[in-house]
Amino acid sequence: LHISFVKLSRGYKYSTRQQNSLIKGVYPASPSSWLFVAIGILATMYMQSDPSMGLITKIQQHLPLRVHNGNVTLVFSTLLWLSLILALRFCLKLLLSYHQWMFEKHGRMSNTTKVWVPLVRLLSSRKPLLYSYQSSLPHLPVPAIQDTVSRYLESVRPLLTDPEFKRMSDLANEFESNLGNRLQRYLKLKALWATNYVSDWWEEYVYLRSRGPIMVNSNYYGMDFLYVTPTSVQAARAGNTITALLLYRRKVNREELKPSRVPGTVIPLCAAQCERMFNTTRTPGVETDVLQHWLDSEFVAVYHRGRYFRLWVYRAGRLLSPREIEDQIQRILDDASPPLPGEEKLGALTAGDRIPWAQMRKQYFSSGVNKRSLDIIERAAFFVTLDDEEQGMRGDDPEGNLDRYAKSLLHGKCYDRWFDKSFSVVIYKNGKSGLNAEHSWADAPTVAHLWEYTLATDAFQLGYTEDGHCKGDVEPSLPQPQRLVWNIPAEVQAQVSSSLAVAQALADDVDCHVFPFREFGKGRIKKCRVSPDAFIQISLQLAYYRDRGGFCLTYEASMTRLFREGRTETVRSCSNESCAFITALESGETEEECRRLFQLASERHQNLYRMAMTGAGIDRHLFCLYVVSKYLGVESPFLKEVLSEPWRLSTSQTPVQQMNLFDLKNHPDFISLGGGFGPVADDGYGVSYIIVGEDMVNFHVSSKYSCSQTVSNVSVIQTQKARMFILALSILKCWFYAD
């Protein structure tokens, strides 16, 4: 009976995938539209009219004589239907290639855009599946090389002295007129056959070929609610969280999620990053890592107090209830068996340098019990850590505890996470939760969408009983979670210790500070007709200027998911206009002049963001030209210098994408903290922020203790080790001149 249920479940999954493939394959038409076309053609043929203008007769001449005329008509109807689908898809792609609407001021829509909007709505009127728009999304265009070079020079002008800018201009002009044109031709050839001329190289060379630790340097984290913990029972929180994640996976597999769109519009965003969200692992290699994805997995890997377990989450094709998963988790928590020799800190291999991990994996994990256990972890839907610590904003030192909470999610103990998994969920002893995500397979907005759904489903849909346990019944015959078995030789244990030392040094050097800014939010900012993102970015520039006494190259992540397989582009937020405003503000210019310059800086930032979103950014184009130069074996002093410039201020906004899931008016305490990441430069800051509701912005600031010039936590001013990073005060003063 069990085998029959499993086969039935697999058959249902297969049929669902086939059905979805057909539906999205004919989008924006529908499969049923074939019937209308066929009936229409048959009706006209019955009325002695030939809508094919002789094509049906020609088709019949090339078929056997026994083929009925009606069958030939159906063949023609099918060909006509497919032609109409291709025509509709081509029209939709053309419409989605139009981006001028993004640059028009609010309330001043051009006639072209007025015609464009209803056409897009018309072709998008059918209810799409998650991947329905993929074949209709335009390809990322290759910018003209002179445009990219010109924009680059404009971006670095406020950062260079006159002699430095003259030297850089000469390098840029020499590159543009000689080697640049040659590299551009090769890049355009790639763009003709590649779905996206950036994404595959970006994934490989920026992420997978990096040989340093991915912990802190690449992986990022997401936090739980700020003020609320739905239950203090660790096993119960794990039960609901795992269930919510698996329900989300079911929606992804069935393509029941609505495609993400540009907020406030019907314009779809690429959904390709969702494909590798679950059942995915980054496996190490000597020269490059590889992303491995499995079609399905019916279990998760669990770590608790140095032991690894396989937890089956399906029984005869049925997803276990939250209460059943809680019961299984409790069995793991109650298991008093000690770790096997070398097992406790084995995860440190994924936290250290990649080459030693690749060598150990090939030599000691390619056969026997080690291979079987490692396969279970890598093939698991995701990784779960049952942490024996308590975290969150609590106790007598809520601010300090919040910082420790962020550090715990970013790196933990350096061995109690499996950093290679697409994401690892952490459930703390007091019921607090969070996740750590690997970066190569997707960017933060995709993971944020998953985490928003998980938190909302956990708290508002699944819920808990009065005593804090999960709801549902328990099948008494469920098998025990399977303890993984290892045979870790001394050589591997020595490498584990070495990798742990590298990871621990990296973790100890990271300074994290998380703080909710409650003075005001996007509600007040929008009243003065200023973009909240531009406002915050200019405030960060001001904060850095006061902290370091100058300006720096600033990275803000922008998405390019308007295009197929798009990922990110850089917005160079430090512009001539923002520097002019800050200089005027700090030198005591009049309030009227500061207001004027602030407005110019805000508009400039918004324009830079729109250009990055629409494929007219700077950095991805220059990066790809650099890759081409390496393939051809030629050196470019200009590209080499551009790509070696440090991003001392690396910033990113975590978008809130599913506001319908959170009713902040009736449940104001259910506020998401967002997430953060480590600093990109050794002497710089990593700043992540999330705009929550109308009156709050949560900030995550990271830096390195080893740099005496950067301090993330404002309270460190008492030690006089460095000038403090006065972010909140900068925002307030910035607002004073913007209001």
UniProtKB/TrEMBL annotation:
What EC identifiers does the entry list?
A: 2.3.1.21
Name the SUPFAM superfamilies for this protein: CoA-dependent acyltransferases
Arranged from A to Z, the UniProt key words for this protein are: Acyltransferase, Fatty acid metabolism, Lipid metabolism, Membrane, Mitochondrion, Transferase, Transmembrane, Transmembrane helix, Transport
**Which chemical reaction does it catalyze?**
(R)-carnitine + hexadecanoyl-CoA = O-hexadecanoyl-(R)-carnitine + CoA
User: What PROSITE patterns would the database entry show?
Assistant: ACYLTRANSF_C_1, ACYLTRANSF_C_2
* Domain Choline/carnitine acyltransferase intervals: 140-710
GO BP of this protein:
carnitine metabolic process; fatty acid metabolic process; long-chain fatty acid transport
Give the transmembrane ranges: 21-47
Task: Please provide, alphabetically and separated by semicolons, the GO molecular function terms listed in this UniProt record.
Answer: carnitine O-palmitoyltransferase activity
Task: Name any one Pfam family assigned in the record.
Answer: Carn_acyltransf
The answer to whether keyword Hydrolase applies is no
Its placement in the membrane is given as: Multi-pass membrane protein
The annotated pathway is: Lipid metabolism; fatty acid beta-oxidation
Quote the subcellular location field of this record: Mitochondrion outer membrane
Q: What is its main location?
A: mitochondrion
Primary enzyme class: transferase
One GO CC term, this protein: mitochondrial outer membrane
Q: Which InterPro entries match?
A: Carn_acyl_trans (IPR000542), CAT-like_dom_sf (IPR023213), Cho/carn_acyl_trans (IPR039551), Cho/carn_acyl_trans_2 (IPR042231)
Where along the chain is the active site annotated? Answer: 439
Q: Which PANTHER family match?
A: CARNITINE O-ACYLTRANSFERASE (PTHR22589), CARNITINE O-PALMITOYLTRANSFERASE (PTHR22589:SF105)
- Per the similarity annotation, which family is this? Belongs to the carnitine/choline acetyltransferase family.
Name-wise, this protein is: carnitine O-palmitoyltransferase
